């Protein structure tokens, strides 16, 4: 069964969970053996998947920005928007947002709430695993940079979908780093290198680009785990959303970068550095 077939169909009642034990065994065959199942049971508990499923079940009857609003309310998460006027003057038709990626899935949820409230046709390009959040199926475009043939096909479908979405006059959000911010060799938490494949795609779109910056980062504990092993850090990521209870985030929105401004950069690397600089400089705008 293809991964995309594993999700819901129009004739199937929406599930009230994100991931089950069986889903993970399907995704990762190594967990299907007796010893693998035992290990998965431990990891399933450590990653807090049951807590995620429980949180999801309370809002799974909603969609898009309404779903995110319900999740944020349950966690008492709020955010301040700097330069909010940009949202009141969004470009007509297709445009792109580029953002740093400090928190993980929470970044995507907030973007859908922030932009989706103004443009319900706004989608975010995400790792394919997030498409298991059925309430946001219409807001996600799935990709997965991997050598796995099935998942590579998902990436190709995602890229084609993004091109079609933009050409039909709809907006898309990107996290060009492709993964959550991490601690560097100087023990500073920063965004990863922005991926050339994403930058090339944005360059091809020829639409306005709006930089969006999320202030802050995940817990120090989460980031220090990455020094031990990135897989342990990844295991911790789902639980990070719960230590954001009662937190108010600061989000800065930059002025749209016109197509004319973008066309000054013929070199892909320079264009990528320009977009990243325009995003990261918003950190000062508090």
From TrEMBL:
Residues 95-217 form the Phospholipid/glycerol acyltransferase domain. It comes from Coprobacter secundus subsp. similis. CDD domains: LPLAT_ACT14924-like. InterPro entries: ACT14924-like_Acyltransf_dom, Plipid/glycerol_acylTrfase. Pfam families: Acyltransf_2. GO terms for molecular function: acyltransferase activity. This is Phospholipid/glycerol acyltransferase domain-containing protein.
